[in-house]
Amino acid sequence: MQVIIVGRYGILLITLGIFLQMTQRTVDINVTDRKLKVACPIGQESALLSAAAELSVRLTKANNNKSIATPEQALLMTALNLTNELLNAKQQLQAEKKENKQKIALLQSTIEQALTPFHNKQA
């Protein structure tokens, strides 16, 4: 392999290419009997395979639905359902975060109140 370096940006591009090769690998996945090669961060292969399996199951169900006429409609409906689930999960996570912050503030206040008489007695 020949490499022509032109200035420091050329070196940066070569370094970036080596970095990407070291941090990603190609994984073969199967979605509704379609074989695909997908770039995947090293260490995330099992998550990608699980996601592909889940997508395959959902697309199969959508394709078996009599009200969905084409594979494109099945893909669109599956994408919309997944997006809706993701947005709901994000909203639930935000609500839980807010609730946890309130609980932490209450605990901090309770601890401070419990320690205040103790500090006053020592002073």
Concise account of the structure shown:
The protein is of the alpha+beta class and 123 residues long.
Identify the notable features of this structure and list them briefly.
123 residues; alpha+beta; two-stranded antiparallel sheet; 3 helices; 2 strands; elongated
What do these coordinates show?
The protein has helices at residues 7-23, 45-64, 71-122; strands at residues 24-31, 34-41. It has 123 residues and is of the alpha+beta class. The chain has one domain (26-122). Helix 2 (45-64) packs across helix 3. It is elongated and about 75 Å long.
The tally of beta strands, per DSSP, is 2
Specify the structural class.
alpha+beta
Given as residue ranges, the uncertain stretches (5+ residues, pLDDT < 50) are 1-16
As for the number of domains, it is: 1
The largest pleated sheet is described as: 2 strands, antiparallel
The spatial strand order of the largest sheet comes to 1-2
In helices, the fraction of residues equals over 70%
